Amino acid sequence: MVHELLAYRAYRAMGLRASRTGYANVAVNGIDYGLHLNVETLDDVFLAGVSTQHLYEAEVGDDTYAGGATDFEIDEGTESSTSDLEALIAAVQGDTPEDFSDRVAGLADLQQMVRMWAAERYIGHWDGYTGLDASWSPNNYYLHSDESGLFTMIPSGPDMAWYDHLDFGFTGGGILFGKCLADPSCTQLYRQAVRDARDTIAGLDLGGLATSTASLLAPFQTSDLEEFNSEQIASGVSDTRDFIGSRPADATAWLGEGPRDPNPHGVEGAKSSSPAPKKRCKGKKKPTAKSGKCRKRKAGAKTS
Q1: 13 by DSSP, 3-state: which?
Q2: pLDDT at 278
């Protein structure tokens, strides 16, 4: 109930366009379905005031490989032509002497994209574009092109964030991310974005927000409809706070910038070392707080 709230707050703090969230008690035809996270839908309302040629939605495996344009779902813009996406793919897959950054200049806003990738790695969003390995990614992202054909990325689906201490380097995720880290000029942009993520997100007091939100939601999570009991919820919030507190030190270690206060903002429960990765579940499943077994998660309500 707090992971996506915190993740989208982190993305927006990094200057990225990302969904807003809220909560709703859901009832349909008099049947109570309990408390749900309410995630803003990415549509023309979300994009109001932004120049838009296309909004492409990606699912597992959709990426900028040759012939990949037809794999994306077109959520906004004409379906009669995908020439903007085809141009991006041609540049990404090109074999010209220019390096990656030069090939995609004018087609991919790398300044924006590296900020999304850095934030994604920082919050442990292993089910996103930068991914965990080739079998899990890329997933849960959108490609947005403006009227000039310049692409940016929009994050999605970070319900399993704040969970695994992902390395900040490339581990087999999206094509753009991998090519960026193979290109010195793009790598320099990305490393700066990791620094910005470390300093910006650490200053948001997301641990405090997790605690206050859990308290706010507690009265609504007492029915038999809820998936977890109060002890499991408290344990989940505590684990999330521990993760938040440890991430600045993780980022600093990857950057190779020497000793740094692992808890510069006084986050309670901060840790300076990374625990072993926790269990991951495919599809719409997640491990339970008590048994660790994979089970189907309650779908979040959406709104425009």
Answers
A1: helix
A2: 45
User: What count of other Cβ atoms lies within 10 Å of the Cβ of residue 31?
Assistant: 7
Structure tokens at 25: 């008690």
Q: What are the tokens at 303?
A: 């709104």
| DSSP per-residue codes, 220-238 | GS-STT-SS-HHHHHHHHH
Q: How far apart are CA 46 and CA 272, in angstroms?
A: 38
- Residues 237/228, Cβ–Cβ less than 8 Å: no
pTM of the prediction? 0.84
Q: What is the pLDDT of residues 184-235, one digit of tens each?
A: 999 999 999 999 999 999 999 999 999 999 999 998 887 666 677 888 889 9
Relative orientation angle of helices 3-13 and 184-202, to the nearest 10 degrees: 120
How far apart CA 288 and CA 81 sit, in angstroms, is 44
CB count in 10 Å sphere of residue 257: 12
The Cα 134–Cα 148 span in angstroms is 31
If you count them, how many residues does the chain have?
304
First-to-last C-alpha distance (Å) of the chain: 20
CA 294 to chain centre: 21
Query: DSSP string covering 101-163, please?
Result: HHHTTTTB-HHHHHHHHHHHHHTT-TTSSS-SSTTT-S-SEEEEE-TT--EEEEE---TT-SS
How many other C-beta atoms lie within 10 A of the C-beta of residue 91? 19
By C-alpha distance, which of 85, 8, 35 is closest to 217? Answer: 35
H or E element at residue 58: strand 54-58
The total of other beta-carbon atoms located within 10 Å of residue 282's CB is: 10
Radius of gyration of the CA atoms of the chain, in A: 20
Inter-helix orientation angle 110-122/184-202, to 10°: 50
**What is residue 33's predicted lDDT score, i.e. its pLDDT?**
87
Do residues 85 and 63 lie in contact, with contact meaning Cβ atoms separated by under 8 Å?
A: no
